[in-house]
Amino acid sequence: MNRNTFFVLFLLISNLVSGQDLKLWYSQPAQNWSEALPIGNSRLGAMVYGGIEREELQLNEETFWAGSPYNNNTPNAVHVLPVVRKLIFEGRNKEAQRLIDANFLTQQHGMSYLTLGSLYLEFPEHQNASGFYRDLNLENATTTTRYQVDDVTYTRTTFASFTDNVIIMHIKASKANALNFTIAYNFPLVHKVNVQNDKLTVTCQGKEQEGLKAALRAECQIQVKTNGTLRPSFIEAGAPDMANELYEYIIEECKKVIPVVERGNFGADMKVSLLNDGQFTIVLDSEQIC
Q1: Is residue 136 classed exposed, middle or buried when 0-12, 13-18 and 19+ CB atoms within 10 A define those classes?
Q2: What value, to the nearest 5°, has the Cα angle with vertex 191 and ends 190 and 194?
Q3: Confidence label for 278 from pLDDT (cuts 50, 70 and 90)
Q4: Is the pLDDT of residue 271 over 70?
Q5: Which CA distances in Å does 126 have to 17, 122, 150, 157?
Q6: Measured between alpha carbons, how far is 47 from 40 in angstroms, rounded to an integer?
Q7: How far is the C-alpha of 194 from the C-alpha of 80, rounded, in Å?
Q8: Distance set, CA 43 to CA 140, 150, 158 (Å)
Q9: CA separation for the pair 244, 185 (Å, rounded)
Q10: Burial class (CB in 10 A: 0-12, 13-18, 19+), 137
Q11: Phi and psi (nearest 5°) for 213?
Q12: What is the pTM for the complete model shown?
């Protein structure tokens, strides 16, 4: 075999491997934020931990910042700038630096980006899981978590839709009557939570920074979608009944004004029990509302 033939074969093999192996995969859940797997669509983002008994999605939205709009310019800077330039050209750098410190800097150094909080999914009796696997697929921008409990395989696939501007988590079990979990939400600042039917809605208050009051509030909506119906007695719990196949997810417009109730430190819970085919989809949406 000559060198040219070997080089062509090497390129073919390399292309096949690169097309199949564009994944980051792990044999245990993330232990901290830097080990979680990122998904996003340029507006909404999430860090997916891939937990077993407790899954966490730490959420972000691009317009949610601390403080409020402000002017970071100082009126003296434009007048001092020619003097600073002259001093630098003369090699008097320390004097130039003193003028810059006194006339260019302000007390506001920029507002910080805020988290949108975390969505938690609690799966009871999953502590003895085996065959754990999670990955970030770089080909289709999805993250998957998969493991077995007894003889049931549980799979969670999460992605951020650019077209529909939401984050989707699809949850399924390999056997009927096997899915049973609780949805909860937490935000490190002041927030209010409301649970109605299949939707958990959270309004998040921004925070003051560098003397500038918080001017922004954000709303996060978590919605479960299945072809089951909600039992009237489970309006707070959101338990779907007798699903046979998965619905297409539906994108609803965000509400600007919503009734909210205070729910304690950890926020509200939505208990979810799927009674038939073992599939579930969670839709997350968020926006800045004022």
Answers
A1: buried
A2: 160
A3: very low
A4: no
A5: 35, 9, 9, 18
A6: 9
A7: 54
A8: 18, 39, 16
A9: 28
A10: middle
A11: -65, 155
A12: 0.70
